[in-house]
Amino acid sequence: MSRRVCGARKKARRDQVSRAKVLRRRRRLRAVTAVSAVAVSGAGLGAAAPDASAAETELASVAGPAAPCGRHHTRGSRPAFLTALDDVSAGAVLIFTATDDAHGLELWRSDGTKAGTALVSDIREGPRGSRVGSPIAVGSTLLFAAHDGVHGSELWRSDGTEVGTTLVADSIPGVRGINPGRLTAVGDTLFFRAEDRVHGRELWRSDGTAAGTVLVEDINPGRADSFPSYAASAGGTVYFTADDGVHGGELWRSDGSEAGTFMVKDLRAGPEGSYPDTGTGLGDRLFFVVDDDVHGDELWRTDGTEAGTVLVKDIVPQGARGGAPYDLTAVDQTLFFTVDDRVHGEELWRTGGTRRSTVLVEDIRRGRGSSYPHDLTAVRDTLFFTARDRTHGFELWRSDGTRRGTVMVEETVAGARHRGPRELTAVGEDLFFQAPVGEYGGELWRSDGSTSGTVRIKNIDPHEEYSHSRSNLYAMTDVGGTLFMSVDDGVHGREPWRSDGTRAGTVLAEDINKTVMFRVARRGVRDLDAGTMAIEVTAGAAGRLVVTPVDGAEVRRSSQQLATAGTATIILRPTEAGLRVLRREGRLRVRAQFTYAPCSGPPTSSETRGLTLALP
């Protein structure tokens, strides 16, 4: 057989195989069209049957048959950094950070009403937000870090109005900024950590003006960092931990001047440093916890001088392990704290600043077992905290500093195995906190310190089952005697709420971000036999999903009623023109827009995806 004849036969076989592939592909595409027609005529999931001529594909919901519109869950604005600010015209108002789809993370204010809840200023226009950070009230002015897209992260100020929200100083011209952080107010002065690309991260101060925003001292000379941290105030002086490059992290103090900024004492000789933990002021003295490499972590005090910086008491004298006191809380002239003395377990202690006055208040869980007191909170001259004894789980306790005056207030949940009250917050003359109620999550309570005066105010989210790790109420804050908090009620997402201590007076301040939670998967699952693609969508409410082609994409429009909140799958199918492209090229690139409208309102969410349908 000649070479030419052999080549012709091979070509004929290739053509035959190619024609067979085309025929098989045409049969698959005809099946796709037939399935689409069936889906259209089926009018699935309780939606009204669309016109077959429209050739709309249908949404297959994992939730089952359609149901009437129920409650939905919006994304929430996630209020944070709740701060009370004195407003000259309105009294105390709440300033906080929140996020909505139009402005991103920005500064907001509220007087507790819908009309009085508003954006303070759109510092960085558009949805990216200005990344407001760590706002703190200094007198009647709020100082905070923000990035307006032009000056970088710099120090800003606000009086709670748009016109009164301005950049304090452009400390580094350009888009980088000094990145203010670790803000601490002492009187009318703000101390903070910042970096100006010359001195490294050092201590700065500001009085709210450009001229008054300056580096205090270059503690670790040059571009090296001293990392000022753990700042606290006592007697009008700021104390903090810093590393000067020689002594390691040690206790420093500052009055805002270079001459008045110095290391208080080298508590642990050598370059490693002692790195004192956050302190608590009591009168003119600062109490703090530190390991001096001799006594272990123990309680110390200082009056700002080297000689006046001393160990209060070696609570665990056996070696260098220490008792590690924590939760230091001042009540009048007494400092309360929690510590394990290796005899009584972890229990409540108090001190007046001397060795003799540093004593165990009460061994709540008798013996070496621990009651684990925590969330120590001062209300007037009484200390509130949570602890457990041998009979009850974690419950609310109070103490006046004596053994007889340290008692359980109320058993909020029967039994010995639960976490009990959390988020203890002093508001005016009362204590507010959250505690579990039966099978439900943490709900709002109020207490005046008596059993009869300890009551549940409101079950804000009755749909949410109790979970040991779930906490519905966050950032509880006293604003002029009114409680403000960040709450997720299971409907509006996490939004600002207020309470006057009554059920009727515990209400949503405003639903800032009304957008229903909605997500579209970045990728789909391709069916190579059918030439279709399955895309998962997730929505926080019952409603209608519509998928439309973008820029003339050759994909069918689809729509369907989503029965309930949850995840569903939509099948994208090509149009007749798209079928021809698939038949010819084996793949089809399309863009589709997914728009979701909850039952309660107009379309609120829309996402666009670029996808590729394919055949083998």
Walk me through the structure.
The strands form eleven sheets. Strands 1, 38, 39, 40 and 43 form a five-stranded antiparallel sheet that branches. The protein has a four-stranded antiparallel sheet with strand order 2-3-4-5, with no helix packed on it. Strands 6-7-8-9 form a four-stranded antiparallel sheet, with no helix packed on it. The model is unreliable at about 30-70 and about 465-470 (pLDDT under 50). It has two helices and 45 strands. A hairpin with a 2-residue loop joins strand 10 (about 180-185) and strand 11 (about 190-195). It is mostly beta strands and about 625 residues long. It starts with a helix and ends with a strand.
Summing up helix and strand content along with how strands pair, one would put the structural category as mainly beta
What's the end-to-end separation, in Å? 36 Å
- Number of E-type strands: 45
How would you sum up the global shape? globular
Biggest β-sheet description: 5 strands, antiparallel
Give the averaged pLDDT, no decimals.
84
Rg on CA atoms, Å: 32 Å
Secondary structure: helix percent: under 10%
Q: Strand-residue fraction?
A: 35-45%
**Helical stretch count?**
2
Outline the low-pLDDT stretches. 28-68, 464-471
Summed up:
The protein has two helices and 45 strands.
Which SSEs are present, and which pair or pack?
Blueprint: H1 3-42, E1 59-61, E2 80-87, E3 91-100, E4 104-110, E5 118-121, E6 133-138, E7 141-147, E8 153-158, E9 166-169, E10 181-186, E11 189-195, E12 201-206, E13 214-217, E14 229-234, E15 237-243, E16 249-254, E17 262-265, E18 280-282, E19 285-291, E20 297-302, E21 310-313, E22 326-331, E23 334-340, E24 346-351, E25 359-362, E26 374-379, E27 382-387, E28 395-399, E29 407-410, E30 422-427, E31 430-437, E32 440-447, E33 455-458, E34 473-479, E35 482-488, E36 494-499, E37 507-508, E38 518-520, E39 525-527, E40 532-539, E41 543-549, E42 558-562, E43 566-572, H2 576-585, E44 587-598, E45 605-614
Antiparallel strand pairs: 1-43, 2-3, 3-4, 4-5, 6-7, 7-8, 8-9, 10-11, 11-12, 12-13, 14-15, 15-16, 16-17, 18-19, 19-20, 20-21, 22-23, 23-24, 24-25, 26-27, 27-28, 28-29, 30-31, 31-32, 32-33, 34-35, 35-36, 36-37, 38-40, 39-40, 40-43, 41-42, 41-44, 44-45
